[in-house]
Every structure is written in C-alpha cells, then in structure tokens.
C-alpha cells in the first residue's frame, strides 16, 4: 500500500518504511553474491576470480540503473508529497520511456567493448574468456535491470517498501537455486550462473512492472488524462538522475582502476578480494538502502514543506545505520573467516587470509561511512545534488590515488585496503560540512 510519510510519528514511520527496504537490499545482495558463491564453491578459485573481475564492470551499468531509480524516486516522492498525482504519473511513464532508450544504447556499447574493458583492467589471460562470457550474458539483461530498479524506486517513492521486498525475496532465492541447478545438474560453467541471473532478473522485472501498473490504476484517473511523456519533467528527473549516475559511474570507474591494481598481485589476492568485497558491498549497499529510505522520506516532506520532519528523519536514519554497521562489524571481525568459506574451499588459504585482512581494515569504519551516506541522502532528497557529488568524488579520487601509492610504498595489497577508511573519512567530513551549511534547505525541484 502507498504511505504518506509527511504525517504521523517520525520514528515508527521511518522504521516501518526503511526496514523492508533494508530486507530488500539484503536479498538483492544475496542475489548478487549468489554467482560468486556458486562459482567459488563448485567451479573453483579461477571462476570466482573471473566473476569478481567482471562484477566491477557490471557496476558501471548498475550505476546508470541506480541513477534512473534515484531520479524518478526523488521527483515522484516530491509530487506524491505535494499531492500532484497527474504530474506524478507522467513522471513515472517518462522515466520508463527514457530508461528503455538508455538501456538499449548501453547494451550495444557494452557488447562492443567487453574485451577492451577487460583488457584495460589487466585481466589475466587465463581468466579473460570466462570473464568475457559472464559479462556478455549479463549485458543482455540490462533492460530488465533498468525496469526493475525504476519500478522498485517508484514503489518506494509512494511509501510502499514491502512490495519490492516480496519480489526480491522470491527472485533471490530462486537465483541461488537456478545457479546451483545450471552448474551441477546441467554441467555449465560461469555461463550457467550468468544465465541463471538473467532469467531470475527478467522474471522479477516483469512482475515488478506489472504490479506497478496495477497500483497506478488503483490510484484513479485525474480530470485531465496524464501525458505519457514530458520534456519538462524529464529535465527535473535528469537534474537528480545525472549527478547520481555520474557519482555511481565514477565510483565504478574508480573500482575498476583499483581492480587493475589488485589484479597485479595474482589470483589469490583477486579471489580473496572478490569474496570480501561482496561482503563489504552488502554492508555499504544496505546502508545506502537505509539512505534511500531517508531520501524518500526527506523528498516527500520537502515537497510538503515540512523541513523539521526532514531534520528529525536524518537522526533516525543515523541511528538505524549505526545499529546495522555495528552488527556487520562484529560479524566480520569475529566470524568473517567462516563467512568467506561460503565462497571458497578451505584449501584456498592465501585467498582467505587476504579477504580477512581487507575486512578487518574496513569494517571498523562502517559507522563513519553511514554518517556520510545518510547525510547525503537528506541532501539528495532536497534536490541539492552538487554537494552530494563533491563529497563522493573527493572520497573516491583520494581512495583510487592512495590505492596506487600505498600499494607501491608498502609493496602489497594492504596498501589498497588502507585507502578505503582514509577516503571515507574525507568524504564524511565534506558531507557533514555541506549539511551544516543549510544550503540544501533552499533547493527547489518542482
């Protein structure tokens, strides 16, 4: 059901709204790590390294899908909060039309440049064929990726976080089963895990879009039929989407550069990183999901002109992200080795040790990066995108530069791992300074 977040007690509203989102993202991450988990356990370290290597490039495409999600979500939230249902419907259809065109263009570019991208990140020759095979199949499903992200973002914008959770719980569980089936019963390799993801992602996308169409019909028609496309609304969406895409793309490019440094240390480091970065990304993406909930809350209340609720909502978001961060820190520090063994066999000792070293360095700083993500979410919900971009770019530029410098100075992968907390600290400081300036309170999108 749709939920108006501009009224009622703030704490229960945020927790009821955000917890299903968090559950959705945990299932989304389970969906993402299933390929690495099955590849590592059933196909070996080379397959795990190949899937992890390709994953860094898939993040570029995910960046565009996430940006489209955020652009539509913020604008739809503000129209929903302001009670402007006609413009809200036009914003939804406009987003889908634009996303269809964008996904087709990216699919063509991706298929044409797969080998070039893999060679650019120093993919070892022994892994090149497997990495390219996985990546090509992934790219075939970009339209599903875009439509699913947009549909779930719109549900969230209307205050419904349960529907995306149900879809993801079913599809992620099915994806694990399909991965194992294709690899063990059908005797397939990395192409098996890739096709399993393609099929499950396609089904969840179709179901999500279908459910959204039914939901919009229940809202009812306005006196004047809502146009299917509006250049004006597209520009409003673009104002949020493009910075989000640039931010996520920049992060992806930065991760690819870091991956190229990691690849120079051999398969064991690559495999350890491929497993540990999935766990790290699960935490960061989950905190980002909490941030997305706060962003939707902020956008609805910003559209309704209720700034005091926005400020209180940030406090609740910080509390929720801190609780999650502390739990993740304790799990990784004390049980990390056992969790990593889900991705690889116990004889991969060098990979296990490297993965644990990474987790022990970054996990203590999850609370800090949570402050940045929640603060960015409030600023983004208001539509003030420049501070959001500056804080993220500063973090990533420093992190990439330090990965190259410290790995050379310390003559090891530990130099790469140390770049994470340093970059996070700088980005968090910048984000908090922008928030305290109050400039975001004056932003206006609709």
From TrEMBL:
Membrane topology term: Multi-pass membrane protein
Membrane-spanning segments: 57-80, 92-117, 137-158, 165-187, 193-216, 228-250, 256-275, 318-341, 361-379, 386-410, 416-435
GO cellular component: plasma membrane
Subcellular location: Cell membrane
Molecular function terms, GO-annotated: antiporter activity; xenobiotic transmembrane transporter activity
Keywords (A to Z) from UniProt: Antiport, Cell membrane, Ion transport, Membrane, Transmembrane, Transmembrane helix, Transport
The keyword Membrane is annotated on this UniProt entry: yes
Alphabetical list of Pfam families matching this protein: MatE
Location (main, coarse): membrane
Any one biological process term the GO annotation gives: monoatomic ion transport
NCBIfam families referenced in this protein's UniProt entry, alphabetically: matE (TIGR00797)
PANTHER family: FMN_FAD EXPORTER YEEO-RELATED, MULTIDRUG RESISTANCE PROTEIN NORM-RELATED
Protein name: Multidrug-efflux transporter
Organism of this sequence: Candidatus Ornithospirochaeta stercoravium
């Amino acid at each position: 059901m749709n939920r108006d977040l501009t009224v009622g007690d703030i704490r229960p509203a945020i927790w009821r709204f955000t917890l299903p989102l968090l559950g959705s993202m945990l299932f989304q991450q389970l969906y993402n790590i299933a390929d690495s988990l099955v590849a590592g356990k059933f196909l070996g370290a080379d397959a795990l390294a190949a899937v992890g290597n390709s994953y860094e490039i898939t993040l570029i495409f995910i960046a565009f899908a996430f940006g489209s999600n955020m652009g539509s979500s913020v604008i739809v939230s503000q129209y929903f909060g302001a009670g402007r249902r006609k413009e809200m419907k036009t914003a939804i259809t406009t987003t889908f039309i634009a996303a269809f065109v964008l996904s087709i263009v990216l699919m063509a570019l991706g298929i044409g440049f797969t080998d070039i991208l893999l060679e650019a990140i120093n993919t070892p020759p022994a892994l090149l064929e497997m990495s390219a095979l996985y990546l090509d199949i992934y790219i075939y499903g970009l339209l599903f990726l875009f439509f699913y992200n947009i549909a779930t973002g719109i549900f969230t914008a209307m205050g419904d976080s349960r529907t995306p959770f149900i879809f993801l719980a079913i599809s992620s569980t099915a994806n694990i089963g399909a991965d194992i089936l294709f690899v063990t019963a059908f005797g397939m390799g990395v192409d098996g895990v890739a096709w399993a993801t393609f099929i499950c992602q396609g089904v969840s996308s179709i179901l999500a879009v279908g459910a959204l169409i039914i939901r919009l019909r229940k809202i009812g028609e306005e006196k004047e039929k809502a146009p299917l496309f509006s250049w004006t609304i597209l520009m409003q969406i673009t104002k949020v989407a493009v910075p989000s895409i640039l931010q996520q793309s920049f992060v992806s490019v930065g991760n690819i550069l870091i991956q190229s440094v990691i690849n120079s240390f051999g398969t064991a480091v690559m495999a350890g990183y491929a497993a540990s970065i999935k766990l790290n990304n699960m935490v960061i993406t989950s905190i980002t999901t909490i941030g997305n909930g706060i962003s939707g809350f902020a956008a609805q209340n910003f559209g309704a002109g209720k700034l005091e609720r926005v400020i209180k909502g940030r406090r609740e978001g910080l509390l929720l992200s801190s609780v999650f961060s502390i739990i993740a820190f304790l799990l990784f520090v004390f049980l990390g080795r056992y969790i990593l063994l889900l991705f690889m066999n116990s004889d991969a000792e060098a990979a296990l040790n490297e993965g644990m070293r990474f987790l022990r360095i970054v996990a203590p700083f999850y609370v800090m990066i949570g402050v940045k993500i929640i603060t960015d979410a409030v600023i983004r919900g208001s539509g003030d995108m420049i501070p959001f971009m500056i804080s993220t770019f500063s973090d990533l530029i420093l992190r990439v530069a330090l990965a190259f410098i410290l790995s050379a100075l310390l003559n090891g992968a530990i130099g790469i791992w140390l770049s994470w907390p340093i970059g996070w600290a700088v980005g968090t400081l910048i984000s908090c300074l922008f928030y305290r300036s109050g400039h975001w309170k004056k932003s206006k999108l609709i």
